[in-house]
């Protein structure tokens, strides 16, 4: 409901992910409760979700309904998270704004005269507007960091190849010089840390053997905290 209200004001959601209710029922029956148990999670448009389009803001991708979840979405579900919406991006995603010919312009909920930043602008707008508490964005040259900054949020671009990018639509094929990365966006650093801890699990390392199987290191994180 919150997400709908925010979307009406700032146009940040591109699709609602069906099957959320079913997934919640399935989770309740599981003995093991994952680290993200019951948390609704918003997903940037170009990250594949089964039965949905990953448009990248481009008309040419509109006919391609994805047949399976990306690895990151599979892992989020494995950890009890509930992906519930897909969020807007700029056309081709290489942009600091958040507008495309399919879904139009996303506005900044803190000031509708301003941009939420890009390219994870739909995520920034939705979380800042109170429609989501945790989202997955992506960042090559600032696409998590810019909307986080513009919308007053916390965001993390993890080290290259730390998280699987299998099942993610990208208009940039073969660019090796700067690594694009998926990463969490939220209102506080603890939420980012919890999300990273949940993602860096056996499930991900098994689903994508190209990801180095290094679990989350709580000590390193805590060492970086000022006393």
Automatic annotation (TrEMBL):
Short name of any one Pfam family annotated for the protein: Amidase
Superkingdom of this protein's organism: Eukaryota
Entry keyword Hydrolase: yes
Domain Amidase as annotated: residue spans: 5-213
GO biological process: fatty acid catabolic process
Hydrolase in keyword set: yes
MF terms (GO), sorted A to Z: amidase activity; fatty acid amide hydrolase activity
InterPro entries: Amidase_CS, Amidase_dom, AS_sf, Endocannabinoid_amidase
PROSITE patterns for this protein: AMIDASES
UniProt keyword annotations, A-Z: Hydrolase
Family to which the UniProt record says this protein belongs: Belongs to the amidase family.
Protein name: VDHAP protein
Organism: Certhia brachydactyla (short-toed tree-creeper)
């Amino acid at each position: 409901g919150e997400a709908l209200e925010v979307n009406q004001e700032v146009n940040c959601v591109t699709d609602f992910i069906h099957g959320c209710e079913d997934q919640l029922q399935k989770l309740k029956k599981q003995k093991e409760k994952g680290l993200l148990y019951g948390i609704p999670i918003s997903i940037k448009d170009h990250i594949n979700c089964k039965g949905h389009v990953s448009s990248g803001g481009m008309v040419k991708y509109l006919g391609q309904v994805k047949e399976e979840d990306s690895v990151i979405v599979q892992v989020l579900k494995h950890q009890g998270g509930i992906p519930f919406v897909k969020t807007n991006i700029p056309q081709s995603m290489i942009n600091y704004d958040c507008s495309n010919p399919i879904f139009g312009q996303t506005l900044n909920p803190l000031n509708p005269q301003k941009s939420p930043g890009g390219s994870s602008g739909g995520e920034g707008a939705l979380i800042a507007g109170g429609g989501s508490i945790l989202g997955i964005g992506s960042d090559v040259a600032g696409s998590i960091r810019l909307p986080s900054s513009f919308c007053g949020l916390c965001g993390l671009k993890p080290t290259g190849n730390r998280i699987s990018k299998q099942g993610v639509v990208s208009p940039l094929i073969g660019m090796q010089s700067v690594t694009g990365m998926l990463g969490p966006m939220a209102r506080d650093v603890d939420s980012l840390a919890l999300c990273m801890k949940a993602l860096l699990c056996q499930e991900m390392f098994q689903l994508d053997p190209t990801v180095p199987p290094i679990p989350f290191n709580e000590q390193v994180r805590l060492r970086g905290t000022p006393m």
